[in-house]
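cron nightly-structures :: item 1 of 1
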Amino acid sequence: MPSAQKHALVVGASGLLGTHLVDHLQRDGGWSITTLSRGARGQAGDHVALDLEDRDACMAAAPAFKDITHVFYGSRAVRPGYRIDLDANQAMLANLCDAMVTRNNNPVHVQLVHGLKWYGFNLGPAPTPAREDTPAHPDASFYLRQRDYISNFAADASWTWSTVRPHLICAVARNSPSNIVSVIGTLAAVLREQGEPLWFPGPEAAFDAHITVSDIALLCRQMSWIAAMPECCGEDFNTVNGDVMSWRDLWPEIAAGFGMEAGGVRPTCLVDYMRDKDALWADMVVRYGLENDGFASMCDWSFADASLGLGWDQKASSEKLRKHGFKETVDTRRMFLDYLEEYRQRKLLPRGKEVTS
């Protein structure tokens, strides 16, 4: 498809991935872009404010989708306590597709953003490195439902589809509570303020587990490349950095960046531990001149407990993506250190050795 004909619909455009993907597509060129999220979007461009759980509203919004050629679907229904609603997530995708097919005569490629829950890594140990042809875990979140739905719908509508499976998406962003970089940085800042070393809040096995993660800039390049390649249609891809890390290996360098000593393992429920830290954080914002939208905007501590509490390897192979022609990788160690430094430079987190008056 000639690049001038590419019109992307970025679903979940106000989220961490959505905002970065829109920026990437704008820089990449050759894309016209429509964004979709529940609320208004600040940046210029066509935007659809829509709650995908509201079927009637989706059908009423159908005219906005008439020229779309590529859907990047990164929206999800998450309830309090980081609980995933399976039925709502399937219904949201169905509502959008039904609305689009009523007013869109273009061939459409729909790309679903899933993750390593496909393999059950959120529930217990699984064979590693995980490969895309591994059958879905029986409790693979909403991923299997959505994948079955879109493969059947696309066949009937003469559309194409793909899925991407990142893990622990890493980025620099303000008001990004489900971002492991913000989690680690905020934990470090709070502990340093209290004169403590940087201890690890999960179990010993989680400290030592080998994991793969996804740099957001690399992920955006992977997503747009996959969506534009006919050879990738009807395929699933692990979209990770291409190397392996452990928290134990990174911990001393992360601590050093904040001017701290690295502590050991101290299993702690962060939801409970951080419950009374709002006043401490508010004081830090004033004293260090931080750019901030409140303590809750920094971290979802339920997400933190879930992400840092997994005492088994979470490794995914990226060989399939390389065989299809995408060769880029990212050094995860360097990525974490650079991103945490950028957080400090942007005054989203305090520097390691602040001088206060």
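cron nightly-structures :: done
Residues 135 and 161 are 18 Å apart (CA to CA).
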